[in-house]
Amino acid sequence: MAKTTTNRASINMTQGPALPLLVRFALPLLIGNALQQVYNMVDSMVVGKFVGSTALAAVGVAFPVVFMMSSLFMGLGMGAMVMVSQYYGGGEQENLRRTIDTVYTFLIVGGVPLCLLGIALTNPILNLLDMPPDARDEAFLYLVILMGGLIGSLGYNLNAGLLQGIGDSRTPLIFLTIACLLNIALDLFLVLVIPLGVAGVAIATIAAQAFSWVFGIFYINKKYPELRIRPFSFKFDKGIFKQVVRLGLPAGVQQALFSFAVLMMTRLVNGYGSTYAAGYAAANKLDTFAFLPIQSVTTAATTYTGQNIGAGRLDRVNQGTKASILLCICFAALGLLVIPAGPSLLRMFTDEAAVVEAGMAFIRRLMPFYWMLGFTFTMNSVMRGAGEALVPMVSSVLSMWLARVPAAYLLAHFFGRDNMHFCYPVGWVVGLAITVPYYLSGRWRNKAITRAGSTAEAEAEAAEHLKKELGA
């Protein structure tokens, strides 16, 4: 059974109906993710309104670049979250402790070299992106500052992953609220009061993230003694780290390749000029907001699956999958509202009609197909929670590189720049074709790392449950 805690923010997901548990866990995640996007959007809104469209294009290129550089650490954080959820569900406190010490040691030792590497690679990456010349200098300055402070973002995300692993999605919301408010205040001060332009926006972002990370360490240590974070203990367990790598490296590789594919898309968009690039960047912000509910539900599904696998409750996993898919389809339907609201929303970033129209070309071709994304993300998240990391990676990578990126260039060449955005549903079809058959095969159910979740009895129970499921 899951280890209990005195903090009521932590949710034991091994008992009770799946749907209410997922909603209870996902709602704070959704609010928190929305806040995170708010302070990312504030960067774009401030530079778009008060600096110019070239600055908006410069800020828009930053997300996939930073995401690519941090993807390895973020993937290992996902692996740590899965291990924490299974150890927590199985009541294995010592392994829980060793996991936290190991991943934090890796963060502290590896974080600074990653920041330096990011700074060194900024120019080559901008060359690869074929950045419009009028936005090049601002993009370079913005990225160098963000890369220098990358460790704050990594630390925050690691704290959030540890808490989500034990079923607490409310506490990270506190950290994000602090970061959001601080970022907005600093944005306005460093752009309007001290006119630093894109440099001020970048400084505001890294300062807010670093403060939220450090505050999070003190808060977790006070509220969750069983998760006590000791950043400089330098205790490193090779066996634990191998498990983290096994679970997290595929996700890290997936995120890196995903980010690189986004960079290839950005290169294609940049070829149409800074105005079109600015519209694409603004529309991507709206797309991110539309995706947040699906992201929150599927993250909840990972924790739900991990805790139940860890506790040997494989009978409950299928309930969680069905509930997650239902929620994702509902959110995909609501996402269609972005289409009529799109022009008004895009005008929050810019007053230029050409930028708005470029953004709407993206939104109109994307939102009707969101339901496919919900199916794929749910099943991949459930499999990750069970300990199967390879197949979700293969599904994502092939859907991106076998379908989306080639389709974007072909569609742009033969049908015009606006129709390149149909590459997204093309990629999602390929992802579904890989994910669904493997999920239905049930082979992912025997990947648990805990004692309770890997017993022969539990595997036999899972096989019998799957037979009933397929025969229904």
- Strands, total number: 0
Distance between the termini: 30 Å
Strand content: under 5%
Helix/strand class = mainly alpha
Number of helices: 17
Gyration radius over CA: 22 Å
Mean pLDDT: 82
Q: Which parts are unreliable, with pLDDT below 50 for 5 consecutive residues or more? A: 1-8, 452-463, 465-472
- Binned, the helix content reads over 70%
Shape: globular
User: What can be said about the biggest beta sheet?
Assistant: none
Order of helices and strands: HHHHHHHHHHHHHHHHH
Feature tags:
disordered C terminus, mainly alpha, single chain, 472 residues
Polypeptide structure, described:
With 472 residues, the protein is mostly helical. Helix content is 80%, strand content 0%. It has helices spanning 18-50, 53-60, 62-90, 93-129, 133-148, 150-165, 171-193, 198-223, 238-270, 274-310, 317-335, 338-346, 353-366, 370-386, 390-415, 423-441, 456-471. The longest helix is centred in the first third of the chain and has 37 residues, at 93-129. It is globular and about 55 Å long. Mean pLDDT is 82; it is low at 1-8, 452-463 and 465-472.
